Amino acid sequence: MSDPTQGDWTGSVLVLLASSTGGIGQHVASLARGLHAGGARVTVGGPLATEQQFRFTDGGATFVPVEIPANPTPADAAAIRAVRRLCAGDIDVVHAHGLRAGLVAALARPAAPIVVTWHNSVLATGLRGRLSRWIERRVARSAQVSLGASVDLVARARELGSPDARLGPVAAPDLPPPRRSRAAVRAEFGVGAHQPLILSVGRLHPQKRYDLLVDVSARWRELTPPAQVVIAGTGPSYLSLAARISSVRAPVTLLGHRDDVADLLLGADVAVVSSDWEARQLFAQEALRAGVPLVATAVGGLPDLVGDAAVLVPRGDPDALDQAVRELLTDHQRRAELAERGPARARHWPTEADTVDQVRAVYRDLVDHAGRRADAGRRLVGPDDGHVDGRG
Predict the structure, then answer these.
(1) For residues 202 and 273, is the Cβ–Cβ distance under 8 A?
(2) Cα-atom radius of gyration of the chain, to the nearest Å?
(3) Would the pTM count as exceeding 0.90?
(4) How many Cβ atoms sit within 10 Å of the Cβ of residue 71?
(5) CATH (residue range 182-346)
(6) pLDDT in tens, 47-96
(7) What does CATH list as the number for 4-171+350-380?
């Protein structure tokens, strides 16, 4: 799907992100690699931990620490000053990923145009929800272009006053080939050849509703043979999930961070996404590409992403999730059908190269427009305007 006739954009971009341990960081790393390969000068600003995990510099980017935590704090003032210093140099475009980075970019007021990619929906309520909605509005109106990772995010940005909101699908990077056999992966978890292995991958955060998956998993102890569930990922919900697993005696293992998702998918019988909201979740993309039958909640951008290549259930409905997984585990033909539909569906998704091409085209249009405005301004002023010649 990539269009080589668009040519390369070789300007300078400052890419900003806040704290990330998952999809946003992976997307920024992919984007930085692609832009650098096309001749652009890429500076990534974000928490030092993001560089340590995602290695933006390995893709050719320059990394500058800009500490933007997940929630607003007085420390944001230092981040705003850091962005202003960076933008005082040769920066053509500022591209912020997520509302937190978008707010810092907006408050820094750079001369360069701002692009913001919207990766998440605001689910918080109360005081935190009101603050988040104020941030949404400020970011929508400050960015020259808002790229929504799903259609509902595009609609939200437009509703809040974005002058230009477009769909900007986030492509999951291709996974490397599995390094182990299916039997070896399953042996790691003590799962026999005929025992169901259910996999989920994502940040351990309340939005992912792993608490729901844990509760439903406790019901699967009664299956013959009983199912085993593994969840790969890190995040703030780890301790509460571990306590819940123990309390309900759920057959769930928290794996922490894993860099062998391809192996885990090879060993899995069913993949599950139990989230309250997702855009184009990377794990859902990985599961369908790998041909692993997927059960996912019908939220955000997931229905448009998976189409009829996955089983969709209402969010927050433990009975629906339970039933969908049980039916797949007992219906070998349905699993085989989904295993074929997944890769077929994935072949029509935008690739990483397509995503880079779209972003590059946005940058080019913004820089060209800024240049035309500057030229028009010079023509209006003229060479003698503002000259004092002493004649009163």
Answers:
(1) yes
(2) 23
(3) no
(4) 12
(5) 3.40.50.2000
(6) 999 999 999 999 999 999 999 988 888 889 999 999 999 999 899 999 99
(7) 3.40.50.2000
